[in-house]
Amino acid sequence: MKIAQIAPLWEQVPPTTYGGTELVVSRLTDELVRRGHDVTLFASGDSKTLARLEAGSPHALRLDTSIKEPVMYDILHASQAYEHAAEFDIIHSHIGVWSLPWASTVSTPTVHTLHGIFTRDNSKVFRRYHTQPYISISDAQRLLNINYVGTVYNGINVSAFPFFAKPQEPSYLAFLGRFSPEKGPQHAINIAKQTGWRLKMAGKVDVVDKKFFEEEIAPHIDGKQIEFLGEVNHDQKAELLGNAAITLFPITWCEPFGLVMAESMATGTPVIAMNMGSVSEVIAHGKTGFVCQSYEEMAAMIPKALELDRQKCREHVENKFSVAQMVDGYEAIYEKIVGDRNFRRWFNSALRNSLESITAFRR
């Protein structure tokens, strides 16, 4: 098939450090190319891909301080992709509401993967275009009544994560994610202090979260019990997670998927998480980690998590969250949508020809 992938411009594909959506798009796009599809990736110009790259901006918007109105680039990015719509069998959008108005103006079908959450404001747009085909990345994400055509879990390249049979000594807890209130780094710190564990933390601090970081996180960083590593690349991430005794996932919001959980388990490290969003779909409770109802329970589960089989953590990811399984799911949806469109075209053509034949006969 001829497939267009539209990625967000905020981060390059794949991201050099943090960026969940762009990482998923990279894995999906490259694997589709390996399987013989003709793929065009619409992304930032500094992206690296096996597909044909069409740049919506010279660089990832987050890293370009000269851009004051990134929304303008988002508009241009979507319009550029849909100007080429006729060249594709299907368009796969990862940019949320930006592609919805455009998708309804072209005959090439668009399928939308929902990478974020529904808000009071964006829900109005999704409801306006509720008949378009949507893919959820977890069943828990389906909080709005729109046309879901499937759930496809995010996949990771398990072979890119070395397996750690034992945690590093002296042992520590790990936190990886954006330093924002919804990711819960403040709760990870509280858990570490309550239990006396060392905590290593890594992730980016967006501009909008700078005040939160300075007031709620920075005062606790002492370089001894609470250590902040900043943004980390893939190898550093794998080392951080794999050497940890346990990864904490103390979210305060309905996380649509949570790649960190799968990445941690791939290295062998179990995860203790709050039961919100997709958590219960990603963690095998009591086998690869614990799904908890409170932050107090998360702290209490640390001794039990230390007893879990790290090999089973990795096998869980291999069996459920691999890139191959993710791409299989997307391919099946592409084929169904393109097949349905082709059938409708055939049916309409046959019906039109039949009506024309009846009209001619009556004459």
Relative strand content: 15-25%
3D shape = elongated
Helix content: 25-40%
- Distance from N terminus to C terminus (CA atoms, Å) equals 43 Å
Instruction: Return the average pLDDT rounded to an integer.
Output: 94
The DSSP helix count reads 13
What Rg do the Cα atoms give?
A: 23 Å
Question: Which consecutive residue ranges, at least 5 long each, have pLDDT under 50?
Answer: none
Strand order of the largest sheet: 3-2-1-4-5-6-7
Task: Give an overview of the whole structure.
With 363 residues, the protein is of the alpha/beta class. 39% of the residues lie in helices and 16% in strands. The chain has 13 helices and 13 strands. The strands form two sheets. A seven-stranded parallel β-sheet has the order 3-2-1-4-5-6-7. It is elongated and about 90 Å long. It starts with a strand and ends with a helix. The model has no long low-confidence stretch (mean pLDDT 94).
What key phrases describe this protein's structure?
six-stranded parallel sheet, elongated, 13 strands, alpha/beta, 16% strand, seven-stranded parallel sheet, 363 residues, 13 helices
